[in-house]
Amino acid sequence: MEQLQDILIQSDDVQWFPLGPGTSYKLFRVSPETGQWSGLIKMEAGARFAPHKHYGAAEFYVLKGALEYRAGIARAGAYGYEPNTVEHGTTTCAEETIITFTAYGPIIFYNEDGTPGLILDWEFVKKQAEGAKVDPKFSIAKNAA
Questions:
Q1: Full-prediction pTM beyond 0.85?
Q2: How many CB atoms lie within 10 A of CB 48?
Q3: pLDDT tens across 66-96, in order?
Q4: Does residue 36 form part of some domain?
Q5: CATH number at residue 119
Q6: Which residue of 12, 44, 75, 129 has the smallest Cβ count within 10 Å?
Q7: 125 occurs within a structural domain
Q8: DSSP assignment, residue 128?
């Protein structure tokens, strides 16, 4: 029987990967068995996430800055939970913002015409972390005009 192993990650040793203009993430853990993935997300001042829908719950904790989204403004020290099937309009950051983030399923980001765009899930982040070329098509994060 395989022995379970603890995971301890020094976040300063983890590479930032692009998610779109002004947005990047550090991947800490992926679970293909459950579809869960965890890491940090960093958004520069003016960066934003396009409208999207969660097909699995997600939770975050704001380490720095402020995340402005459907439920209000989450400032440093705030915890947020996003239930399965919740839809968000544009999510913005007026200042550099860093959050811990755990997704328990895929997130579908919509293109400007409302059609489904990027599917952000464990496979996307795992492939990118392993060095595969993935194209986020920059549909999930766009700089504010």
A1: yes
A2: 24
A3: 999 888 999 999 999 999 999 988 899 999 9
A4: yes
A5: 2.60.120.10
A6: 12
A7: yes
A8: H
